[in-house]
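## retry 2 of 3
previous attempt timed out at serialization; input unchanged, resubmitting
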Amino acid sequence: MTRTVFIDGQAGTTGLGIATRLAAEPGMALHVLPEMRRKSPEARREAMRRSDLTILCLPDDAAIAAVRLADELGDEAPKLLDASTAHRTAPGWVYGFAELWPDQPRRIADAARVANPGCYATAAIALLRPLTATGLVPPDHPITLQGTSGYSGGGHAMIAAHEAAGGPAFELYALGLGHKHLPEIMAAAGLDRLPLFVPSVGHFPRGMVVTLPLHLDQLPGRVTPADLFDALAGWYGEAARIRVVPPDPSGRLAADALAGRDDMELSVYANEQARLALLVARLDNLGKGASGAAVENARLMLGIGS
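## retry succeeded, writing output
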């Protein structure tokens, strides 16, 4: 059986990435509105009615308004997958991180409304959830996260700035220390204390690294780097798209090495003598961090595999 998918906001970076992937997916057919009707509420509502799944690739306020359009359809409303930040911690929405808990794929498959995770959040949660769940890191432990992303995740204006001659080589941003991904990181990673998160953008199109530094002597018990590695490896042992890998012997990692892919790598670097560890997540900000994760969730929601 072919399932119909409507992408509300297909012209954006994430929407285009999802559309490209879904075009190659067996069992899925895209319902596309003519460009002149893509902002018409009536046309969008009818497209939702005709779809089995509607994916929202819109700014937060527009995504909230789109949910109201779907609500007007009552029993004819499709399943919704929201790629915005608007519903990631909202009641009634399932968080679309399939590797979060062993039963998370089933919860996504059964849900009428799923919130696709943010790119930085995907990496941070992948590192933290196994550590808090196994008790290696307490929920109130002071956490610092640093992330560097390719510029493609910043939207059309940032892409234009970086692709212009003399575009910035590297930028820190969100220096008010209140990045929009923090609420979902806290909720999904099981944290009670707000992390200190510093994101940045590099002068490369796609790719991402997020790092979690830990002073091992500040953790309860005598945690070793091997304990951290084993916690990650045990949590993701059966996962198809998250791999726990040994540290690169060069001691160097390129942020864009997984560009164009929909998987993620986790690793643990350490100075055992100094009792220091650095956990690293590497992914494509538009792959596992956005469009790739959305297609993974779409498969689950439509019951056509993962």
